[in-house]
Amino acid sequence: MKREEPLFDVAQLAHLEIYSPKIEESVAFFREILGMSVAAREGKSVYMRAYEDHYHNTLKITDHHEAGLGHLSLRATSPNALERRVKELEEKGYGIGWIDGDVGHGPAYQFKSPDGHLMEIFYEVEYFEAPEEEKTKLLNRPQRRPNIGVPVRRLDHINLLSSNPRETVEFLEALLGFKVNERILDEDNNDIAAWTSVTNLAHDIAVMGDALGEKGRLHHICYWYGYPQSLTDVSDLLIERGFEIEAGPLKHGVSQASCLYVCEPGGNRVELFGDAGYLIFDPDWKTVEWKGEDLQKAIIWQGAAELPADFFRYGTPVREEKVPAIAGQAPIEEETEDVRSVTVEESKEQAKV
Amino acid sequence: MKREEPLFDVAQLAHLEIYSPKIEESVAFFREILGMSVAAREGKSVYMRAYEDHYHNTLKITDHHEAGLGHLSLRATSPNALERRVKELEEKGYGIGWIDGDVGHGPAYQFKSPDGHLMEIFYEVEYFEAPEEEKTKLLNRPQRRPNIGVPVRRLDHINLLSSNPRETVEFLEALLGFKVNERILDEDNNDIAAWTSVTNLAHDIAVMGDALGEKGRLHHICYWYGYPQSLTDVSDLLIERGFEIEAGPLKHGVSQASCLYVCEPGGNRVELFGDAGYLIFDPDWKTVEWKGEDLQKAIIWQGAAELPADFFRYGTPVREEKVPAIAGQAPIEEETEDVRSVTVEESKEQAKV
Amino acid sequence: MKREEPLFDVAQLAHLEIYSPKIEESVAFFREILGMSVAAREGKSVYMRAYEDHYHNTLKITDHHEAGLGHLSLRATSPNALERRVKELEEKGYGIGWIDGDVGHGPAYQFKSPDGHLMEIFYEVEYFEAPEEEKTKLLNRPQRRPNIGVPVRRLDHINLLSSNPRETVEFLEALLGFKVNERILDEDNNDIAAWTSVTNLAHDIAVMGDALGEKGRLHHICYWYGYPQSLTDVSDLLIERGFEIEAGPLKHGVSQASCLYVCEPGGNRVELFGDAGYLIFDPDWKTVEWKGEDLQKAIIWQGAAELPADFFRYGTPVREEKVPAIAGQAPIEEETEDVRSVTVEESKEQAKV
Amino acid sequence: MKREEPLFDVAQLAHLEIYSPKIEESVAFFREILGMSVAAREGKSVYMRAYEDHYHNTLKITDHHEAGLGHLSLRATSPNALERRVKELEEKGYGIGWIDGDVGHGPAYQFKSPDGHLMEIFYEVEYFEAPEEEKTKLLNRPQRRPNIGVPVRRLDHINLLSSNPRETVEFLEALLGFKVNERILDEDNNDIAAWTSVTNLAHDIAVMGDALGEKGRLHHICYWYGYPQSLTDVSDLLIERGFEIEAGPLKHGVSQASCLYVCEPGGNRVELFGDAGYLIFDPDWKTVEWKGEDLQKAIIWQGAAELPADFFRYGTPVREEKVPAIAGQAPIEEETEDVRSVTVEESKEQAKV
Question: Where does the record place the region Disordered (chains A, B, C, D) (predicted)?
Answer without folding.
Answer: 331-353
